């Protein structure tokens, strides 16, 4: 006789039907499988697998625990299908019933079995679900009325706060700010789903395809690379091929800070074989200050430095005036 209660735990982020082999074995062998308010999609998966799932959500927790213990004690094998909320109170109720049963006779065995685990990145599904709730009818009125344009100040602010967290070498701050920036990406994707017909899945699919395409040394059997410099060269070559037909400085955002924008523009001129010194003189049009600033950017590029980051670091070292 089995005389066993199995509490089966699963990740709420696991697709219906995706369980470990031991979990399915236990479910199929059980005399009864009980659950409280199970997901209809899981009920369908169980039905297709020939497993009968009984919903006891209307039964008080103490009585659920009592039934599990008493029926298992009679030599049956019962499985409790864990709920997303962790079934508050069930563990304590089981312990109480097992203690009472132990006074009169041997109590049934109780085993906790994990049937599925979160995959890396699974919590991103929670963020997408929360954002969907906020933007859907009955959600948050403020979130529902936001547009790509209204969200731009937050996107810019969060990006700068990530930069600040990185440069301050504050791990806890960086973790928080990366979350705030990620929210902006998911928020924009949800807004796009309403307005343009694409959502976070299309956004993710696009960047995955780009990463694989631009890393042939990793994802292609024929590819190889011996150094970071070679990788960068391959990246730029592939990028140029993808962007064939792009003219001038197309693709360099006009909203970039001036130093960062200058570095990108001068970099594109250099890769195109243009004499950067001549280009700087022409762009300065006799303005010595402009010429000096551009030459600083040229110097930064030549030394492999980030002009914007260097200036930001210097500003952080300035000593404020005494009050």
UniProtKB/TrEMBL annotation:
<dbReference type="InterPro" id="IPR048015">
    <property type="entry name" value="NTP-PPase_MazG-like_N"/>
</dbReference>
<protein>
    <submittedName>
        <fullName>XTP/dITP diphosphohydrolase</fullName>
        <ecNumber>3.6.1.66</ecNumber>
    </submittedName>
</protein>
<dbReference type="InterPro" id="IPR004518">
    <property type="entry name" value="MazG-like_dom"/>
</dbReference>
<dbReference type="InterPro" id="IPR035996">
    <property type="entry name" value="4pyrrol_Methylase_sf"/>
</dbReference>
<dbReference type="GO" id="GO:0036220">
    <property type="term" value="F:ITP diphosphatase activity"/>
</dbReference>
<keyword id="KW-0378">Hydrolase</keyword>
<dbReference type="InterPro" id="IPR011551">
    <property type="entry name" value="NTP_PyrPHydrolase_MazG"/>
</dbReference>
<dbReference type="Pfam" id="PF03819">
    <property type="entry name" value="MazG"/>
</dbReference>
<feature type="domain" description="NTP pyrophosphohydrolase MazG-like">
    <location>
        <begin position="146"/>
        <end position="219"/>
    </location>
</feature>
């Amino acid at each position: 006789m089995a005389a066993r209660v199995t509490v089966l735990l699963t990740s709420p982020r696991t697709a219906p039907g995706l369980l470990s082999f031991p979990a399915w074995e236990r479910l199929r062998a059980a005399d009864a499988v009980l659950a409280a308010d199970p997901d209809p999609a899981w009920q369908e998966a169980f039905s297709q697998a020939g497993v009968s799932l009984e919903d006891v959500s209307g039964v008080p927790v103490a009585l659920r625990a009592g039934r599990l213990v008493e029926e298992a004690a009679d030599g049956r094998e019962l499985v409790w299908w864990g709920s997303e909320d962790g079934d508050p109170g069930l563990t304590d109720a089981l312990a109480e019933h097992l203690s009472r049963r132990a006074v009169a006779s041997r109590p049934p065995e109780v085993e906790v079995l994990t049937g599925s685990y979160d995959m890396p990145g699974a919590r991103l599904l929670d963020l997408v679900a929360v954002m969907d709730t906020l933007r859907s009818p009955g959600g948050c009125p403020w979130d529902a009325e936001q547009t790509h344009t209204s969200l731009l100040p937050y996107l810019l602010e969060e990006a700068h706060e990530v930069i600040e967290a990185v440069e301050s070498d504050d791990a806890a701050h960086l973790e928080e700010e990366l979350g705030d920036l990620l929210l902006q990406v998911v928020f924009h994707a949800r807004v796009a789903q309403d307005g343009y017909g694409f959502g976070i899945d299309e956004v993710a699919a696009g960047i995955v395809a780009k990463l694989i395409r631009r890393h042939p040394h990793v994802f292609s059997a024929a590819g190889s690379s011996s150094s970071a410099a070679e990788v960068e060269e391959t990246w730029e070559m592939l990028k140029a091929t993808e962007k064939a037909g792009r003219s001038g400085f197309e693709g360099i955002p006009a909203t970039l800070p001036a130093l960062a924008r200058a570095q990108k523009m001068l970099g594109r001129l250099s890769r195109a074989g243009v004499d950067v010194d001549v280009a700087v003189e022409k762009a300065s049009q006799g303005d010595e200050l402009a010429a000096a600033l551009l030459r600083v950017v040229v110097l930064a590029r030549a030394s492999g430095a980030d002009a914007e980051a260097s200036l930001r670091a210097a500003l952080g070292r300035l000593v404020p005036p005494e009050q």
